Each structure stands twice: as C-alpha cells, then as structure tokens.
Request: fold
Amino acid sequence: MDIPQNLKYTASHEWIAGAPDGTLTIGITAVATDQLGELVYVELPEVGKQLAAGEACAVVESTKAASDVYAPVAGEVVEVNSALGEQPGTVNEGPYDKGWLFRLKPAEAGAADRLLDANAYRASAGV
Amino acid sequence: MHLSADGSLGVSALAQTPLHTLHRALGARFTPFAGYDMPLQYADGLKAEHLWTRARAGLFDVSHMGQLRVSGAAPHGALEAALPLDFDGWPAGQQRYSLLLNDAGGIEDDLMVTRLEGEVAIVVNAACRDKDYAQLRARCAGLAFEWRDAALLALQGPEAERVLAGLAPAAGELKFMQAAWMPVAGERCLVTRSGYTGEDGYEISVPASAAEKLARALLDDAAVKPVGLAARDTLRLEAGLHLYGQDMDAETSVCTAGLGWAIARARRAGGAKEGGFPGAQTTLRELREGTRRRLAGLVGIEPVPVRQGAAIVDTEGVERGTVTSGTVSPSLGKPVMLAQLDTTLAADAPLFAVVRGKRHAVARAALPFVPKRYKR
Reply:
C-alpha cells in the first residue's frame, strides 16, 4: 500500500501536505480509496468556509456508500479541486496528486505537525 | 472518514457457505450478511464485476439463502393456504415468484417457488429463514419442511447458457423460470433458469460437498468470473428487482411494493379461489382501491448519488415519497433509485431528492432501468 513518507496523516485516512506558504493540501489515502472502490461523486466544501478541526467537510461516494471527510486541523478553505466534479475517479487514480480534495489556510501555524507521520498512520490503519 | 473494518471482530461467529475456502483463494473481500461471512467483492471490484456480468457471465454464491424442500400429501392445496399462488394448471418444472404475507397484509418475505414431481422447492431470503420456516409450518400443518443441505450458485449473463450447457446439455433446453433435476459435472443438481440480475442465467442447487468442484468447473471457462454481493445489489437494482428488507418489509403491503402481479389471478377478487391466504383482506382491498404510496423508479438528473432513506419532495418542499434503494448505476453512469411515491402525483410532477439537506432534481423512470434479457 502506497503511504508516502513526506506526508502527514489522520487516523481517519486523510493525508495532509504542507506548502511553503503555510497552506495545507488535503486528500484521502490509498487505504481509503482501496476500501471505497471507484468514486462516483465527490462533494467539496465552499471556498472561504471556516472549518473546525475534525469537522465533516467533504463527502466521497462510491457505488457502495457515502463517507465523510474530516478537516484534519482548523482553518479556512482557500481552494478546492473542482475537476473532481466531472472526474471523481481521479481520486482513485492518483489519491496523493491529481486526486487532492481541498486546501486549507490553517488557523494555527504548525497545527499539522501534531498529526500522524507515515509510520504512525501505517500502524493505525493496520497496513 | 470512517471505514468499516473487514475481517474484524465477530467474524468467527458468522456462518460460512460451502464455498468459503474458494472465496478466500479467489481474493474475496468479505462482509457480514444475514449471519453469513459473504464475499462483498473480489479483486476486480464492484464496477468491473457488474459490467462483466452484463457482458459475459458472473458466478455468485447465494448459498446463504434458505432452500426448503416441501413434501407431504397434497402439498399444493396446503401451500395455497399460506401463499397467494394457484397450483392448478401449474406444470412440474415451473418456477414462480411469491410472497409470504402476514395477517395485516405486510410482506414477511419474497420467495421463489418451484413445483417439482412429488415435492415443492422454495428459496427464501437468508435473513428470513427461521421466521419463514415457523410461519409455513404453522399454516401447513400436514406438510414436511426440511432445509436442503446444498449450496446455491447463480450463473448470470449472456454467456451463462453456453457455459452451463457445456457441463449439462439439458440446461440449454430450459426457458426462463423453468427447473429440472440434472447431472452437472457429474453431480445431481436442481437447475432453474432464473436469477436476480435481469440477465439470462441459472441458479444451481448443488450438494454442499460438491459445490467447490462445480464452482471451479464453471470458473474454468474464460467467460466466467466470480462476482460478489456488492455487484449483485447494483445488478438487481438496475433490473428493477426488489430487495427484501429495503424495498419491502413486514410493514409494506403488496400494492405499496408494486407487487400486485405476484398475486395469482385465481386468488384475486372474482377468481376461482378468491382470497384464503394471509393478508388477503388488505391485499384484495388494495388491489381494488389502490394505495397511498407505490414503488416506482427514479433517475437522478444530477450526478449526486441518492441512497436508501432519502426523502423525495415536490417543488413546494412537501415530502411525497421515500427512497427504498438507491445507487449509481454502473451500466448507465447515473443515479437510479426505487422509491415509494404518493400515487396522487402527476406523472410529470417535478420531484427532488433531498441529500444532506440539499435538493437534487430526479425524474420518473420506467422499470427496469436496464432491459431484462431473459430467455422466454
């Protein structure tokens, strides 16, 4: 299972990548896409929305089921991957690159440092 | 997100079908279903398995379903007291769909009934095994009911006939909803030309001890792939077929479920054997007067999937129905749903499904969503 070493993670299968400008890019892991199967619909938050840490803020749906995606840290939504509206399967094809979901400007700099590293996520997910 | 764990606590308490070892060898991902540890999907996944069944042939393990053998003196008259069927003019080797009703007219189960020489075979839903057995015994005191120690395999899809006839030539002679005992790969099996996918195909009741050998023989054909319960659900929904526990239950009447056709003509008002089955009073009244709501097909105009439990509202926001089954059709690439809708609605009334608090336009659609391809 592909769990990139350079990302941060949550136990609820979100990955988080930091950018030099302090924003965070968020997506779901290969563990999640493997479990869900091919996505048929993705619902993303509105740009400008303020999210609390742990808030359900996006929905990914496979044929089987709908699953919430949670904000890993508090912050403001600054961009969403609107290409997923037409091509939700992009998340399955590249969960860590083209399949990113949204970008956050965190309320507190460094909040992401407290999230899981790749090894801790592997242990948490049992992969 | 929260992912349901597979293969976690409690699995040891689940029953296994005779094909469990084979499912593991084939790389199945399992899910608990009606007390059984069942294959949800294999390595190819839901969509590929679904489309393969429509294009070639899918092999399903449906051994969790209950297979009842009914015998005794004059079983047919006694069964007519329990089920809204008419055994007159019903030849041996013919299968019919029926409903086990309660006294209030609610649906306790839907079942497949096959008249055979000297016995009747009934297939019931896994979750309903015990209550069906109790209810049928109570209503048919003179009859013997026993569970067959057999696996049930479904081979479904346009290549099913070629594949099964290769192992059992007599299978090619059957027409839709016909049944016969025949040797398949050297084992005596009860074969019916039926299934629950909308495709041509068969259900094969094979002794448990020979089930894996038969499954492997079928899978030896390059046209056959194993298909899990996830694709079975999307296939049946595209075919407009009801799932017990979702599209109907003990609180749902025959006419609300849109299953009035399952009541034999002779058992309806004015028929030679009018009434005389559980729930007949309610059922016959509803066949005459109609019901407040009735099951109908809907398709999504927008891509958002609509699932079981979603409300259907009109332009005023007034609730006019409830979705009982919903998915995104792998064949059509758009949301499809079965919903109980107000029967007073105009056919062209604009309707919306409410998903996470937002309205999404839906349109009435004729059932099935995908044409059935039975060999009649």
